[in-house]
Structure formats: structure tokens, C-alpha cells
Amino acid sequence: MAIIGLGFAKQNLHLFSLKKSQLLLLKLIAIILAALLFCEFLIYYVVIAQCNWPEVKATVHDGEKERLQPVLKAMFLADTHLLGEIRGHWLDKLRREWQMETAFQTALWLLQPEVVFILGDIFDEGKWSSSQAWADDVERFHRIFRHPRHVQLKVVAGNHDIGFHYHFVMVNSVALEGDGCRICSKAEAELTGISHKLNCSREEQPDSLCVQGKQLPASAPILLQHFPLYRRSDAGCSGEDAAPPGERDLPFQERYDVLSREASQKLLWWLQPRLVLSGHTHSACEVLHGANTLEISVPSFSWRNRNNPSFIMGSVTATEYALSKCYLPLEHKVLATYTGAAVFLVTLILVHLELLPSPFHFGWNLLRKSKRK
């Protein structure tokens, strides 16, 4: 009987040990899945849900009456830099594209914009890509930035050098070198044409030349482009997503970091914009040109370029605008969450192997000792 009892005890001990191992495995799987679910999905909803559309004055006086203007909800993002087949590790490429796709789709679902503008540098390897690689990159772009039919997606450096959309003038600033090249001459000709139409829209009694052709809205446009207008440096920029302090005083090179002074003056003179939005620097900045033309540099949308990507939300009417910034999850916080989960996993394994005392047992023993005293 004693032998039979010993056998049952060993069997029960084995079953108990097996159940503990299975329970540990379930705990490990649950923690891993919870960390993945939070860091790769839920964190985007938690962070972006805190963003709100800015309020803008939507009423205008029409004689003695007040008239309500329609408000356009627009998102502005820049410098996605999708990697190609030449530069970057495949894992880095996969990670960054997953982040941007999840962030963009979450923003579309939560914020419901009517139009999205991407201010250039969509791809990182456009200069070197083969025809097939370029086609693959474009296909990936359409997958990552897919959108419902009622949402319009506009890329500044697209099929047309210059276009007019709602209250926005989109300029391919790469074509503003001023060296008389074919696309540069075409861009300047189109700009002067739009400048003429804008001037006509501002006149109360337009002349005979203004009557011909399609009339533009009688409002100052918002200029959208990739390169910033000319400025010496980012020395006057501030904020948590501005360039690092050590880089702000570095002088900008015309036609490389910013537009040339001449091209910038032409754009401001031709278009007389009420606002300028640009990208390229990967950092935020606000610059005042002349007396009242504000330029905002939109930071990069990619975690590959900065730890705290963001995009701009704009509420726009024919005469007014209001902007706010929506930050995406911070890279270091995501990594800290994964690190915390990994430490917790290792602790569970060490406790299971009895290489580390259980926190519960450790606390219970301390409580017993304190009661004895």
C-alpha cells in the first residue's frame, strides 16, 4: 500500500508540475500577445484619439447678414521616405511601413478628414530605382495610404507640376531652380497663369482678360510645397519637434535645403498666399515672411527620421484657417513598453525555475515576520 501511495504521489507531483508549466506557457503567450496588441495597434488609437480638429471662424458678413462658410478638414503630412530595394534593411523597411500604415489608417478612421496632402519626399530611392522597383514602390504607397473614395489624397510632387485644389496651390518646388530647364520654364509659365487668375479673383470689376477662362475663388490661397521658402537656418525655430539645438544654427544651402531667395520672392509675389506649408527639413518650424505670411514646416511622418512624428490638422474656409498638430506614438515609449514586458517575462521564468523567489511568497514571509515581532 505504501508503494502504491508513493506512486500516486509521484504521479500527482508530475501532473502538478506539468500544469504549472502549461500555466506558465499560457501566461507568457498572454503577455506577448498583450504587448504586441498594445504596441502595434491600440497605442495608435489611444494617442491619435486625443487629437481634435481646430475651431475656425466659419461665419462671414454678407451685407447686413451673416453667412456660414463651409469648413474643409485637411490633413498635412510630409517626408514619408518609403524605402526601396537599395537602401535600408528589410526589417527596418517592414517596421517603418507598418508604423506609417497603422498610424495613417487610424487617423483616417478617427479623424475623418476630407482631404489629405502629402508634401513630397514620398519615396527614398526615386533617383535610383529601376522601372520595376519604382512600380513596386508605387504599389506599396497605394497600399499604405489607401483611403475611402470620399477622402481625396493629394501628393504635391505628383503628375502635374502645379495644381489648384480648393483653396490650395500645390507647387513642385523641385522645378523652381531658375536655370531655364524645360520643366522649370513650364512651372514658371503655369505659376504666372495662376497668378493672373488670382489677381482677377481679387478685382471687384475684372477686365475683359479676366472674364475668359475658369474663375478661381476670391480668397488668398494656401501654398503647399516640398522645399521651404528661403531662410538662413532654423535658428528661430523652437518646440519639441524642432531641429536639435546643435543643428538649428547650421546655415541652409539655397536650392538644396531651401528654395533660392529669388524663387521664394517670386512665389510670394505671384501668389500672395495667406499661409505656406512645406516639408523637407524633417523638423517643425514657423517662419514669418514679410509682414503677415506665415510658413510652417511640417515634420516627417516617419519614425525613421524622428522619434516623435506628427501631422498637421487644418480647418480651412475661403477666408480663414486654423491649425493644430497631432503627434504619433513616441518610439522610445513603445520600446520601453516592450522592454518592460520582456523583463516581466524573464521574471516569471526565473520564478518558475525557482531561481528567484516568488514576489507573492516573499511578501507573505515579510508579513509573517512582522506579525511575529
From TrEMBL:
InterPro entries to which the protein is assigned, alphabetical: Calcineurin-like_PHP, Metallo-depent_PP-like, MPP_MPPE1, PGAP5/Cdc1/Ted1
Alphabetized UniProt keyword annotations: ER-Golgi transport, GPI-anchor biosynthesis, Hydrolase, Manganese, Membrane, Metal-binding, Transmembrane, Transmembrane helix, Transport
Membrane protein topology class: Multi-pass membrane protein
TM region positions: 24-47, 341-367
Record flagged with keyword Signal: no
Keyword Transferase applies: no
Domain Calcineurin-like phosphoesterase stretches: 73-283
Subunit structure: Interacts with GPI-anchor proteins (via the GPI portion). Interacts with TMED10.
The protein's name in its UniProt record: Metallophosphoesterase 1
Gene (name only): MPPE1
